[in-house]
Amino acid sequence: MGARKVGVGTLPRGKNLKMGRRRLSIVAISSALAVGIGVLVYGFMDDQKERPTHNAEAVYSLDVKDKRKLVGFAEQVFLGRVVEKVGSESKETTNPGTVIPQTQFSVDVLKVLKSEISGDIIVNQQGGYDPEDESTVLLEGDPLLKPGNTYLFTTKRDSQKGWLSIVAPGYADIMITSPEQQVDAIREFEEAVRNQELPRKP
Fold first, then answer.
1. What is the DSSP letter of 163?
2. DSSP letter for each residue of 171-200
3. Which residues, other chains included, contact 77 with Cβ-Cβ below 8 Å and sequence gap of 6+?
4. pLDDT over 90 (residue 175)
5. Residue range 76-131, pLDDT digits in tens
6. I want to staple 40 with a disulfide (CB 3.0 to 4.6 A). Which of 33, 59, 61, 66 is the partner?
7. Under 8 Å between Cβ of 76 and 114
8. Is the CB of residue 39 less than 8 Å from the CB of residue 29?
9. Distance CA 186, CA 105 (A)
10. What kind and span of H or E run contains 64?
11. Cβ 80 vs Cβ 114: under 8 Å
12. How far apart are CA 113 and CA 78, in angstroms?
């Protein structure tokens, strides 16, 4: 059926989600993007699965693949172990009545590369379970954080909620899979912090 523009927001609710596999184009300002990165989202759903999953691909105004710019935009860069899921809620977008799920996790800070955080903190991840249509929304195909796993996070504090929001799903929450990879990731991000490029002022 091709692509259909649905306006500003995340995936629409209601019968449009029950019509099988469909390409959608969506323009959104998502939850962590309230911290300042605009995003153009292209997504699809596949209701062949028992629980539909909506995958969205974000095109950022910031070059999130450049770690110097990524950490320059962020307020915190740190290694942390996810303890448990502690909450979930929806975030309104600029399209009235359209929301995107987001999920909060308790994280134990292991090593700080930027900022002065410590102890247990709350990390907010874009994406999560949408109870209204019993689906899961993932941005950039970024799997939800898994308790027990360690990640290298790049975040920015939400001024209203106080939690630390992952600034770029798929780029700012790197799962650590081995001691060797952890050493390499820390080295790369420490260098990026030393050479960070701060956002240009408008």
1. S
2. TSEEEP-SHHHHHHHHHHHHHHHHT--PPP
3. 71, 112, 113, 114, 115, 152, 153, 154, 155, 189, 192, 193
4. yes
5. 999 999 999 999 988 775 556 667 789 999 999 999 999 999 999 999 998 898 77
6. 59
7. yes
8. yes
9. 22
10. none
11. no
12. 5
